[in-house]
Amino acid sequence: MYRAIRFLVIISFCLGCYSSLQAQEFEPNYVETKVPEYVLPDVLKSATGKLVGNRKEWERSRRNEILTLLEDNIYGQMPTVYDSIRYAIASENKMSMQGRAHLKEILIEVFNHGKSVKINLVLFVPNNARKPVPAFVLINNRSKDNMDPARDIKSNFWPAEVVIDAGYAIAAFHVDDLAPDHKDLFINGVLELYPEQLKADNGMRAIGAWAWGASRVMDYLEKDSLIEKDKVVVVGHSRGGKASLWAAAQDERFAICVTNCSGNTGAALSRRKFGERIAVINTAFPHWFNNNYKAFNNKEDLLPVDQHMLIALIAPRPVYATSASEDLWADPKGTFLCLKNAEPVFSLYGLKSLLPEEPPPIDKPIIQSPIAYHNRAGKHDLTLYDWKSFIKFADYHFKPGYK
């Protein structure tokens, strides 16, 4: 009874528009002994049955094969061609945060077929650091107040001051600029530039649009002399964490990927059928993923991929996935196992994962590893604890001599 009630609370919070009758049709499994037996697709076995034995074979064939499978069956195509892109400084304050940071509000406008989409980027760069500096970029799926450039509103969801004091630039853009998170309104944005995607069963939808937007932000950061362009970290929480993974898989310019409490179709294995399920996502959020994905509602075992293969696409670049102890909906153990099953691809690059065989205790992060993980005490959220861990992860990979 408790599980059913908790599910109703989650659905009501996320949707607001679904009837309780519809919600009661699904009761999530939160019992580990009820996880069914499953067999994951072999990340190193090609469609022809050949096993990949080295990084050249991975990069030449298997990686692209998996990327196409994910595009066609889940996330949709990723358009890469547009007519033009323009950058304009909408506002600037070189002495923001009491002189600690240089604030830029940048308008990124992308044009295609006579239409445009505008991305509003908020960027802070530390003033006391040697330039250029590494940067964190958040795909913000919460309130725009979290990225208040005036800093009248401060939030641990985007603790800009903490990141600045650690010597990193920090940027954020809001998902609504690319595709409003609404089943009818998501077409207003990037998809106006690519209307053909809406007609295709494997076409891009909202999650893909947000990932596309992260790449357009990367286009700008490459040109900003204050930013160390080969040290940019893409970060996302929940549905934004699904998008950060897809952005990093598609765009190898992102040096590190962080996905926080991203759950099903993020960094948790679908075949475990634990917590959130594919059918629930596709029913509640039909605008997130492509039409083909709906064929796998309650048929996870028929998917030609699972989420460990998405993690593998980011190799050899470091990946940090997180969970929260009270967030069983997002399957903490399934997230850890997803990372573990991506390890063979990192091994092709001579990178040894230091993840243990079993999930680590709560609040005991595994950071000094190419694949990192923690399960934070608490609820589904992006917190200061998470951000401080991400900074340590970036320090480890970006700063020689880190201890």
Automatic annotation (TrEMBL):
Keywords: Hydrolase, Serine esterase, Signal
Record-linked Pfam families: GCE_fung
InterPro entries, per database record: AB_hydrolase_fold, GCE-like_dom
Superkingdom: Bacteria
Ranges for domain 4-O-methyl-glucuronoyl methylesterase-like: 108-350
GO molecular function, one term: carboxylic ester hydrolase activity
Signal peptide limits: 1-23
Listed name of the protein: 4-O-methyl-glucuronoyl methylesterase-like domain-containing protein
Lineage: Bacteria, Pseudomonadati, Bacteroidota, Cytophagia, Cytophagales
